[in-house]
Amino acid sequence: MNAITTHHQFLRSGGDATLPRLLKPSPLCRPSFAVRMSLREDAPSLAVVGVTGAVGQEFLSVLSDRSFPYRSIKMLASKRSAGKRITFEGNEYVVEELMPESFNGVDIALFSAGGSISKQFGPIAVDSGSIVVDNSSAFRMDEKVPLVIPEVNPEAMAHIKLGSGKGALIANPNCSTIICLMAATPLHRRAKVLRMVVSTYQAASGAGAAAMEELEQQTREVLEGKQPTCNIFKQQYAFNLFSHNAPVLSNGYNEEEMKLVKETRKIWNDMNVKVTATCIRVPVMRAHAESVNLQFEMPIDEDTARDILKNAPGVVVIDDRAANHFPTPLEVSNKDDVAVGRIRSDVSQDGNYGLDIFVCGDQIRKGAALNAVQIAEMLL
Amino acid sequence: MNAITTHHQFLRSGGDATLPRLLKPSPLCRPSFAVRMSLREDAPSLAVVGVTGAVGQEFLSVLSDRSFPYRSIKMLASKRSAGKRITFEGNEYVVEELMPESFNGVDIALFSAGGSISKQFGPIAVDSGSIVVDNSSAFRMDEKVPLVIPEVNPEAMAHIKLGSGKGALIANPNCSTIICLMAATPLHRRAKVLRMVVSTYQAASGAGAAAMEELEQQTREVLEGKQPTCNIFKQQYAFNLFSHNAPVLSNGYNEEEMKLVKETRKIWNDMNVKVTATCIRVPVMRAHAESVNLQFEMPIDEDTARDILKNAPGVVVIDDRAANHFPTPLEVSNKDDVAVGRIRSDVSQDGNYGLDIFVCGDQIRKGAALNAVQIAEMLL
């Protein structure tokens, strides 16, 4: 892919006016929120919680892109955003303040408003009979709540039925976990992963639209010889990188890293898989990259691995050694598929018991909004 | 360290007018090439090959900073740069075109002009009786040529004596190897590293001053909504990252990765140590970061590891979990020490047989020029 295309891709976005300049739609941008036939009487009623945020806006993009059928859709956000107007698929909606009553008559509620909002309003929505797909970490490790990547473990939510009148919670995994497991799972199914060493290269978007704006602003300031403004992050982000800003736990891992460790075990339903991770924030806007070293129980050679990944749903292989063309964050930005490349037998392991791979995925899309909407689609 | 200091650090440089704007000296910059007492009749005669490049300029900075004694110093470069004037420690020098005769009377020659120049002129310099410290990869794996990190394996060059009239070659390891082994070696000495999994976050400087300029120019272009200019790299670098641009070998590893694998074995004189690496170029100017997972033969707990690293020469520990303050490329830019943090027992390994660490080092300084000058100092 040439630099021009990638550059325009980089500029594409869900189209929220509150998103940073760098992410505004470009002339090449797909039409957002085009008028579709997905407004139907027999379809479920939806609610989007945190609709003005980066992921909330991407929820709308993905619902529209995939012609997700709905009877009605409620745009919910904090009091601060209430009253804002959003045009979605040809209709104008007024953003409503999130209230306990907000979920009356709502069949499916997509949450992305942070863990505390999910903890407070998730159970209320469930009591109102809504099926909640929650993008926060609030319920991910709750053993009664399925943690689902549709391509990986759809069976975990098989017992949850739309229209049963019974509310339920389904958790969306952390973005780094989703992107890593989209590539690792097909290989795990073939040769069983015993141990995984992950190093991440995480985009600003994981910290929200404000973090993306801060990266852009800081970069402008540094280029102008000014001191960079540090609001979201306490240190310079432009032309720099740093250990992920999540709190560091007593074992020295930060919460982001332990999500990869624990969520992998739950999603694979394998309490024995060994995972270690080092999570780093890099000055990239909206797609994560991950360097993943895999140790297997059974031998698997790199050609077999490549074939398996080429046939894996939601995965695209970009692995052109001659052209030195491999996945990059820009190339997967605003894309649904997770890209995998640098697929090679690990020279530090004997036989074919090890592989190194490099994975890139759009953090806002497959890492959050797309995966959540795919979960909702499985309910239809 | 606050953002302001880091920002100014970021702006500091060896002071070459050909370096990108972002790297020009700032008001806080140490005085480069100040008048020193290091010009002495009894000192060796020096030559700097590739003196107008990023590393060549840093050679001069480091020689001056460390008051390296010299009787005379020849500034050598390609025909293109010949005739340029360089003021060094109060004296003006004219850059001379590199010729076979350039090494007559030269005791120590510091080379950083690329592998082909080293292959062509290195042996000529040796025949002229010069001791060559070569920053290229040309002779690193030549078993007759010591590959040296002074803090790690000084014994490898013990047989090479200045003033013996006998020329010799000493190779400077690859930047990623130096930065990794500065931190891994003290732990290796205590508990013996069996296997190392490295993922790098490499700065533009590794591809030279022009790559640093391209990153700056592309970033300006992207911020202005323009298409980024791709000359040095074939894809967008600004707000992106990509697999290292070194050629990819038949085993799927690129040359940069195999340097880490092979140079580690040679420097540690341990043909059994298992190393795998994934090398990634990130949009950072002049310092590399590396995520390193270590497996040991003997148990070593994280507190012991931290104490060992705190006492290791050329290493500084930045490991403040409460403040979430760990090494960053900006914080080590223009610094001599390699910074280590995120020191923790690996949760994916039983007992205390594994550690994860995160390392940052200035690619131009300890990764190249400083290490070479330290090698030269051992000859005095």
From TrEMBL, chains A, B:
<keyword id="KW-0560">Oxidoreductase</keyword>
<comment type="similarity">
    <text>Belongs to the aspartate-semialdehyde dehydrogenase family.</text>
</comment>
<dbReference type="GO" id="GO:0050661">
    <property type="term" value="F:NADP binding"/>
</dbReference>
<dbReference type="InterPro" id="IPR036291">
    <property type="entry name" value="NAD(P)-bd_dom_sf"/>
</dbReference>
<keyword id="KW-0791">Threonine biosynthesis</keyword>
<dbReference type="GO" id="GO:0009086">
    <property type="term" value="P:methionine biosynthetic process"/>
</dbReference>
<feature type="active site" description="Acyl-thioester intermediate">
    <location>
        <position position="175"/>
    </location>
</feature>
<keyword id="KW-0028">Amino-acid biosynthesis</keyword>
<dbReference type="InterPro" id="IPR000534">
    <property type="entry name" value="Semialdehyde_DH_NAD-bd"/>
</dbReference>
<keyword id="KW-0521">NADP</keyword>
<keyword id="KW-0486">Methionine biosynthesis</keyword>
<dbReference type="GO" id="GO:0051287">
    <property type="term" value="F:NAD binding"/>
</dbReference>
<feature type="domain" description="Semialdehyde dehydrogenase NAD-binding">
    <location>
        <begin position="45"/>
        <end position="160"/>
    </location>
</feature>
<dbReference type="GO" id="GO:0046983">
    <property type="term" value="F:protein dimerization activity"/>
</dbReference>
<dbReference type="InterPro" id="IPR012080">
    <property type="entry name" value="Asp_semialdehyde_DH"/>
</dbReference>
<keyword id="KW-0457">Lysine biosynthesis</keyword>
<dbReference type="InterPro" id="IPR005986">
    <property type="entry name" value="Asp_semialdehyde_DH_beta"/>
</dbReference>
<comment type="pathway">
    <text>Amino-acid biosynthesis; L-methionine biosynthesis via de novo pathway; L-homoserine from L-aspartate: step 2/3.</text>
</comment>
<feature type="active site" description="Proton acceptor">
    <location>
        <position position="288"/>
    </location>
</feature>
<dbReference type="GO" id="GO:0019877">
    <property type="term" value="P:diaminopimelate biosynthetic process"/>
</dbReference>
<dbReference type="Pfam" id="PF02774">
    <property type="entry name" value="Semialdhyde_dhC"/>
</dbReference>
<dbReference type="Pfam" id="PF01118">
    <property type="entry name" value="Semialdhyde_dh"/>
</dbReference>
<dbReference type="GO" id="GO:0004073">
    <property type="term" value="F:aspartate-semialdehyde dehydrogenase activity"/>
</dbReference>
<dbReference type="GO" id="GO:0009088">
    <property type="term" value="P:threonine biosynthetic process"/>
</dbReference>
<comment type="subunit">
    <text>Homodimer.</text>
</comment>
<protein>
    <recommendedName>
        <fullName>aspartate-semialdehyde dehydrogenase</fullName>
        <ecNumber>1.2.1.11</ecNumber>
    </recommendedName>
</protein>
<dbReference type="GO" id="GO:0009097">
    <property type="term" value="P:isoleucine biosynthetic process"/>
</dbReference>
<dbReference type="GO" id="GO:0009089">
    <property type="term" value="P:lysine biosynthetic process via diaminopimelate"/>
</dbReference>
<keyword id="KW-0220">Diaminopimelate biosynthesis</keyword>
<comment type="pathway">
    <text>Amino-acid biosynthesis; L-threonine biosynthesis; L-threonine from L-aspartate: step 2/5.</text>
</comment>
<dbReference type="InterPro" id="IPR012280">
    <property type="entry name" value="Semialdhyde_DH_dimer_dom"/>
</dbReference>
